[in-house]
Amino acid sequence: MDSMPSALPIADPAPSDGLVAPAAGAGDVPFGVYVHVPFCRVRCGYCDFNTYTASELRGVRRDDYAGHALREIAFADQVLERSGVPRRPVSTVFFGGGTPTMLPASDLAMILRAIDDTWGIVPGAEVTTEANPDSVDADSIATLQRAGFTRMSYGMQSAVPHVLATLDRTHDPERVPVVVDLAKQQGLDVSLDLIYSTPGESLDDWRTSLDAAIACAPDHVSAYSLIVEDGTAMGRAVARGELPAPDDDLAADMYELADQVLGDAGYDWYEVSNWSRGPEHASRHNLSYWKGHDWWGIGPGAHSAVAGTRWWNVKHPAAYAGKVLQDVSPAAGRETLDDETRYVERVLLAARVRGELRIDELRREARGRVAGLIARGLVDGRAALGGTLELTLSGRLLADAVVRDLLD
């Protein structure tokens, strides 16, 4: 959920000084940091994220990345100070990718230390890194724990070999419980990421993956329906008829099965694609996006949102390095959010989070549609009586349609 898409929006040019105009109340919301590490050993056929294998780097070395990230952290601190945005300690940090653990654990520790030295990290903050099961071992996990990481998010995707092969995932599924246990031995929270509706995946295959994930007893599970993106190897294979396109009805069945199996195992849904063992294990960093908090995104292609301004960095690591080494903003474009955009995004994101959207936040026309959504079985009536909009299971399957109803 935290990886950066490869395509960047088209918006206003970004000033080289990176300065923002603080909105009213700037500094009143929590502040997080996202670090995008855009390296992978191989490119998965379904992947549309801003990632690069060794042969695709051209003009920059992976070994230099940590130094470039430190330059952007220093630049970010200057921008916030010169823009008059009140200084806030960091509430959450998330290293995503790519595969952040393609870097030495000592490099990730160095970047985290720079974030702490620059802004301070609040006591008890959530600090996560994504990792592939084959990209960490006991020593690297111990190094991350000593550095202040509190959470590992493993890309499990599936426990079924033919599904992993279709996804071009190279890890051995038997490695997953091993690395989960290694993280638990260090006292770290563990999240497992799963993908369903892969071409050729059956409902029984999906149940096998769910059962395998639950057997690892993670603290958190994310389950995302595969989207076949144009321009990816999988997208081309589907277009040529070499792979079947995902089936929407089967995907719905898979989602319902996930909710049932995870619920029976003690996991509660808190966002449409996310379940945790109680609210204390929900991803605080992802919740910060859905709740509209501020964050600075470090790295190539990373997105940021601070004080009513949103921007995104240049994509290629070489272009990114060229910017930060000149002490100019690495942003490729930016936009200032007006009140209408803020409202639309608030409804779009908060509606997906259990108990997050209050009905009195909706405009009058939208409030008038809530009764109809309850009658159609898409919104929970009891929660609505308590003042919040909460999707039912059917509503989660049709979340986009619910949001359209509320915004039309």
Question: Mind explaining what this structure looks like?
Answer:
The chain contains 16 helices and 14 strands. With about 400 residues, it is of the alpha/beta class. The strands form three sheets. It has a nine-stranded mixed beta sheet, with helices on both faces. Strand 1, helix 1 and strand 2 (about 90-95) form a beta-alpha-beta unit. It is globular. Pfam families: Radical_SAM (PF04055). Belongs to the anaerobic coproporphyrinogen-III oxidase family. HemW subfamily.
Present the secondary structure layout.
Blueprint: E1 31-37, H1 65-83, E2 90-97, H2 105-119, E3 121-131, H3 138-147, E4 151-157, H4 161-166, H5 175-185, E5 189-196, H6 203-215, E6 220-225, H7 233-239, H8 248-264, E7 268-271, E8 274-276, H9 284-290, E9 294-298, E10 303-306, E11 309-313, H10 317-324, E12 331-336, H11 339-350, E13 357-358, H12 364-367, H13 370-375, H14 381-385, E14 388-389, H15 393-397, H16 399-407
Parallel strand pairs: 1-2, 1-9, 2-3, 3-4, 4-5, 5-6
Antiparallel strand pairs: 6-8, 7-8, 10-11, 11-12, 13-14
Shape by Cα distribution: globular
Major sheet details: 9 strands, mixed
Number of domains: 2
Oligomer: single chain
A few lines on this structure:
The protein has 408 residues and is an alpha/beta fold.
Question: What labels would you give this structure?
Answer:
three-stranded antiparallel β-sheet, single chain, alpha/beta, nine-stranded mixed β-sheet, TIM Barrel, globular, 19% strand, 408 residues, 14 strands
